[in-house]
Amino acid sequence: MPLKKFPELSPIIDLNRQFLFIKLNVELTPSFKVLNTFSTVIIGAFSLANIVPDLQAFAITVGTGTKILGTIDLVPPIDSASQAGEISDYVEGHIQTSVAIVGASGSGKSM
Question: What Gene Ontology cellular component terms go with this record (predicted)?
């Protein structure tokens, strides 16, 4: 029944009426609680089943990260900061191969 004096309150009254109906239904029907519990368990089971591919990807990532960090932590046999050793006055070379670092803008190509 729409309100004639205050038509802008009509949706609010309808919403309250629907809430009251749902509230009464929930309190009077224990089967709703059983259905709610059952659907919660089913949704939880599906969610756990969807985690398995993510766990596999996570395990692969951890393994790869361990290898990369192991490579980063290696101590080189030559100390690049040392001034000891032979320093040549003249160096000549011929470039035979060039390497390009490519990637999207902002992906850390220049450090």
Answer: membrane
Find out whether 52 and 45 touch, Cβ atoms under 8 Å.
no
Q: Which two tokens stand for residue 44?
A: 């939880």
Contact 59, 65 (CB under 8 A): no
| Span 67-76, average pLDDT | 89
User: What CA–CA distance (Å, rounded) separates 72 from 7?
Assistant: 70
| Domain locations in the chain as residue ranges | 7-72
Length of the chain: 111
Could you tell me how far CA 68 lies from the centroid of its own chain?
Answer: 21
pLDDT tens-place string over residues 12-65 = 555 556 555 555 555 555 677 777 778 888 888 888 778 888 888 888 899 898
